[in-house]
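Deliverable D4.2, example record:
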Amino acid sequence: MANVLTVVAKLSAKPGKGDELAAILRQQVAAVLKAEPDCVVYRLHRSKKNPDLFVFYEQYRSDAAFDLHRKAPHISIGRRPTSRPFASAATRSSQARRRSSSTSR
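Output generated by the structure prediction step:
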């Protein structure tokens, strides 16, 4: 596999809602790793300076795998208006060459 789709997604919790969002995102990580074999990397990071700021680093085997991820029911949990503890989300993606043959999740 020579190419992967790399995604960096940044989420900001509503002020003071970082712990609530962190709990939702940890559940999301577990669900993605279990249900999406074509997601080869899915890492959640939380800012030490701002506990309401989160970043995902993700890699997918293909555009189709990322499309499936975006439409997956376990991803829509935090998108429900009544349960949204986040204020904003931004995603950046790019095609990138795989640098090693190892797979990290």
